[in-house]
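Quick illustration, no need to memorize.
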Amino acid sequence: MPRSSEPRGPVVPVIGGGPAGMSCALSLHNYGLFPLIIEKESALGGMARMSPYPNEWLLGQRGKTGRENAADFAAHIRELGVLGLNPHRLRRQEQHWRLYLAGEPAARSLSAPAIVIATGTRFAGEEWLDGVANARRMMAAGRLHLGATAVGEQGADLGSHVAVIGGGDNAFDVSRMLAERGIRVTVIMRSKLPKAQPLLIERLRRYQASELVTVLAERTVAALEENGARVGIRLHGGGEIEADRVVLLFGYRPNTDQPWLVALAPATDALGYLVIDGNMETSCRGVFAAGDVANPAHPCIATAIASGAVAARHIAKRLAHERAAAP
């Protein structure tokens, strides 16, 4: 039998230590509950920890990067002492959930009246890397980057020409940032029209007019080749371009494919994001979701923080009602 290690009072595991998970844990703590953040990485912060870009959307944090925001949040939450281990299995047990934790000792478990899933998202593009010849090798050599992190790092040597693969918000916004630094950009997108917001398309247009940025529509990459210090990009249907770096910006994928979560089988949408109601509760009663894993209309740090607080509020209200109704 697993050894149970239970604190006094109701414990609420929060699976994921990004802004949504940290916000939820803080609110649960303030409501007098016992949150336990379960984070697989060595540091809190989630995807925000990977962003070297200034975050102009968070009130009171002007001039700070997403990475600095995450560090501030983590410093606050560490004071609560609510860090835990990785989840291994989740089972319904009468009116509670039992969460089995991985690590040493090998079998630990917690009984909880509610669980919060805040596992966030990751950069999309793994399938592309596996499907394009030599892509993994170019990535290992540091010539191809998945996601926008490397492009925004201070002192990053990107050469004079960067190929951006993708046609969404990130692709057009990062292309503009590169062009502002005088770097030539070729955007390669498979769709006829970009999926980026009109504002981002318009911001990039001035650099297209000056021929610093070229957008190739309805084109896809067949293979990558090493051409000395540069990367040869061979396109389907003919044609090849050379660039110093290649950046894949295909958006994000939800982190809902962990075995314990797949076994739980909460309802998801067509893209794999968790489906929630107005109380941030999933189709599994007592299992809530917060942040980007629940596909918010506007994914950002501000909405992640808000959703974590909302989930905590509804958990606290439900537990208070159940305590009041208990004989």
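Confidence is low (pLDDT under 50) at residues 1-6.
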